[in-house]
Specification:
Length: about 325
């Protein structure tokens, strides 16, 4: 297959086309869509999902999944709120939230690794467990006594530019995750685990330690997302980020990561995040309700699984080009 042929059948290429179409359609929906202020708002609103999608990509590449990310964000937001209620400085409350999120991810990983249990079942259980703890601790209260500098984390912009601070933070995290996944031995080991876990063990990969690491990273990044989301909403509540796992998983799968593990790229996930962010923004400008937007997100996830699955047309096109005899 020629280099051009490989590029044309890459899922990322298709997503770039979808992104262009989404921008063009959004411009038709509202004259405000392509304004710098609106695009800035759209990107800032997408950052909590984007941050959690980074470790979720690693987890799904290994053939596992974490359904509890929304509840971990809620638990971290609750921790942040309780610390502020008790008079702790905001940096100390942020550190406490990071510690709780990291511990929650570690617990998920430990149960999956040492209990030899399916991650889907484990994280469905911890989804209810973490959310329940948050609701017991904070109940229906909300905390909004944040200083201006903290709120700028969520929707403040860099200097006189329309670039949100949260986007700057995401870019740094994205670069770190991308280098790890695509340029290091341990990143390549995650693909090996997703393709054949037992073969990875026999090749000398410490599968248990790698799995424990990616789930812990999911908890830590959920805590970071909780900080960004509470700053964006200017409120910390126990019900923060309910349902956030759906757009996170949709972005990862739409980005070309095989739901069964073993393949996928972070650049693809990045383009998918942009597609979802701008489509959601355009739907909002068109007057579509959040409930209807959730239906769209679910439909996108199902369609992506159909298109990109083992019988999808992208996979068939790739296989056809691979099998085509080369011209002499």
């Amino acid at each position: 297959m020629s280099a051009l042929g490989r590029a044309l059948v890459r899922w990322e290429t298709f997503l770039l086309l979808v992104l262009i179409v989404a921008l063009l359609c959004g411009a038709q929906v509202s004259r405000y869509f392509l304004t710098t202020s609106n695009l800035s708002i759209a990107l800032a609103g997408a950052m909590p999902v984007a941050l959690v999608a980074l470790p979720m990509t690693l987890i799904i590449i290994t053939g596992e999944i974490d359904i509890s990310v929304g509840s971990m964000i809620g638990l971290c937001a609750t921790t942040l709120a309780l610390c502020l209620e008790r008079g702790l400085p905001v940096p100390a409350a942020m550190a406490a939230g990071l510690a709780v999120g990291t511990m929650a991810g570690l617990i998920n990983g430990a149960i999956v690794v040492y209990g030899r249990l399916p991650s889907l079942v484990v994280t469905i259980g911890t989804l209810a467990f973490y959310r329940g703890i948050a609701q017991i601790l904070l109940k229906e209260r909300g905390v909004s006594a944040f200083p201006d500098w903290y709120q700028s984390i969520g929707f403040g912009t860099v200097g006189g530019t329309p670039i949100p601070w949260s986007v700057v933070g995401f870019v740094l995290f994205f670069a770190g995750f991308a280098v790890f996944l695509h340029r290091t031995h341990r990143g390549r080991a995650l693909y090996a685990i997703g393709n054949n876990r037992e073969a990875a063990r026999f090749s000398g990969i410490n599968v248990d330690r790698m799995m424990l690491g990616v789930f812990t990273a999911s908890g830590a990044m959920s805590a970071v997302a909780a900080i960004v989301l509470t700053a964006y909403l200017a409120s910390a509540r126990s019900d923060t980020a309910i349902g956030l796992e759906l757009p996170v998983i949709t972005a990862v799968v739409l980005g070309g990561v095989n739901i069964f593990g073993g393949s996928g790229t972070l650049p693809g996930v990045l383009v998918a995040l942009l597609v979802l962010a701008f489509v959601q923004n355009a739907l909002g400008l068109a007057g579509v309700t959040p409930e209807e937007q959730q239906i769209v997100t679910g439909a996108v996830l199902v369609l992506t699984l159909i298109v990109f699955g083992g019988t999808g047309f992208i996979r068939k096109a790739r296989d056809a080009l691979r099998l085509r005899p080369r011209q002499s």
